Each structure stands twice: as structure tokens, then as C-alpha cells.
Amino acid sequence: MKIGIIGAGSVGKVLAKGWIDVGHSVKISSRDPHSESLFVWKEQMGSECHTGSFEEAAAFGDVIILAVNWSGIEAVLQKIGQTALHNKVVIDLSNAVEFSETPQLALKGISAGELIQQWLPESRVVKTLNMVGSSSMVHPHYDEGIPAMFLCGNDEEAKQIVEGLLQQIGWKTILDIGDITRSGLLESLMLTCLISEIKQQCFGAAFALLRK
Ligand SMILES: NC(=O)c1ccc[n+]([C@@H]2O[C@H](COP(=O)([O-])OP(=O)(O)OC[C@H]3O[C@@H](n4cnc5c(N)ncnc54)[C@H](OP(=O)(O)O)[C@@H]3O)[C@@H](O)[C@H]2O)c1
């Protein structure tokens, strides 16, 4: 599969490597796709790793990963344009967080996932992966086992495609919690995790679902 990654930070790179390692072809993008550091990293990833502008990554991918900071997403999507993402599966893993005394969700009355689906009405947005840190996104092994991953989105086929991609990078228990209106639950889950991590000064947590 061809995967276009919008954003070449820690999340973009870790997911790019994860999917290249299992045979996918990736185009990862940045405001400066010709930077030396990105070039050096791309060379280490091998022939299935390509770099380009945000628009080039969007055109390349059958599946698109939004891995840009929340503050930049709307402008980046405007630059790419809705048409370029028509009918594509768009994975949203963003977290709109405000850091004041304690972290809180920056959006009121709507979630980031819903807003992205509104900005991209012709795309098939799936929210997932936002509630774990980048170091746990690929092959998430903990002493207690493999954590659970949640996803939501309006399009059933898109969710199946995303589930398959998650399985390929090591997720086993993947739970579909409904349409994109459930995105706020996943964003609150991230916040719950973040607040408890800060209180305990212990980072890298993930969720497990225990059954009797
Ligand atoms: N880090 C985590 O553990 C984690 C976990 C869950 C979810 N997330 C979410 O994943 C997304 C990416 O996080 P990250 O940790 O990979 O961030 P990061 O390392 O800071 O990288 C962010 C990427 O976004 C681009 N960017 C930032 N501001 C921009 C703007 N105003 N306009 C255009 N591009 C901009 C940067 O572009 P340049 O390359 O041009 O600098 C970079 O490629 C965020 O939405 C975050 O909430 C992160």
C-alpha cells in the first residue's frame, strides 16, 4: 500500500519506519522536505521511503496519516486542498491540548477528529493512536502484554483498512468504538493518561482492556 505521511516529526518517522518494515511504500512530508536531516533519515529507511511536500505526500498515499501539530493542521489541510484527499482514508492521531496549570483539551464542544472530518467532508477520517506516545505506536510490548488500541470513524471499510495497518505494526486488540463523534472519548482518554503520567512522573503508559 502507498502511505502518505503529513508531518515528519517523531510520530511521522516512527510510523513511516513501522510500515516500511512490513513492506509498504511511504512518502513523508515536511515544510522543508529537502532538509539534510530528513535526507539522512530517508537514506536509512531504504528504497520504499520517499520525501516530499505536504501536497506530494497527499497525492501519493492511498492512506494518509496526519502527523502535524494541532496548531498547524488546518492550514496544512487548506494547502493540500479537500480535492486531493477525496475518498482517501485519513488517519487522525492529533491531540489538541492546552498546557496551563494542568493540561486540558483546547477544543470545547467538538473534538479534533470531528473537526478534521468537517474540514475534509469527502475523506474517510479514522481517529486512532492518539492515546499512546510515539515510542509505543509500533510493536507496543509491555511487561503486562500488548495494550489495546481504540479507533472510530464513519466509514466501515476505512476502519477495516486502518485495523489491518495497525495489526501489521503489532497491535492485536483493536476496538472500534463507533463513528467519528466518539473521537472526543479518545481525546479524553489521552488526557486522562497524560494527567496521570504527569502526576506520577512516569511516561509511556498505554491502556489494556481486561476481561473476566
Ligand atoms: N509525540 C507523541 O508521542 C504523540 C502521541 C500521540 C499523538 N501525537 C500527535 O501527533 C502529531 C505529531 O506529533 P509529533 O510528536 O510527531 O510532533 P513533532 O515531532 O513536533 O512534529 C510535528 C510535525 O508537524 C509539522 N508542523 C508543526 N507545526 C506546523 C505548522 N504550523 N505548519 C505546518 N507543519 C507544522 C512539523 O513540520 P516540520 O517538519 O516542517 O518542522 C513536523 O513535521 C500531533 O498532532 C500530536 O498531537 C503525538
What does this entry look like structurally?
By secondary structure, the protein is α/β, with parallel strands linked by helices. It has one domain: 3-Layer(aba) Sandwich (Rossmann fold), CATH 3.40.50. It is built from seven helices and ten strands. Strands 3-2-1-4-5-8-9-10 form an eight-stranded mixed β-sheet, sandwiched between helices. Strands 6-7 form a two-stranded antiparallel ribbon. The radius of gyration is 16 Å and the shape is globular. The N and C termini lie far apart (38 Å). The model has no long low-confidence stretch (mean pLDDT 97).
Quick rundown:
The chain has seven helices and ten strands.
The CATH H-level homologous superfamily: NAD(P)-binding Rossmann-like Domain
Radius of gyration: 16 Å
Uncertain ranges: none
User: Strands of the biggest beta sheet: in what spatial order?
Assistant: 3-2-1-4-5-8-9-10
CATH topology: Rossmann fold
Strand content: 15-25%
Mean of pLDDT: 97
Helix content: 25-40%
Largest sheet: 8 strands, mixed
The CATH class is identified as Alpha Beta
Number of domains: 1
Query: Helical element count?
Result: 7
CATH architecture: 3-Layer(aba) Sandwich
Number of strands: 10
Principal-axis shape equals: globular
Q: What is the H-and-E element order?
A: EHEHEHEHEEEHEEHEH
**How many angstroms does the end-to-end distance come to?**
38 Å
The distinct bound ligands, ions and cofactors come out as:
NADP nicotinamide-adenine-dinucleotide phosphate
> Which structural category do the helix and sheet elements fall into?
alpha/beta
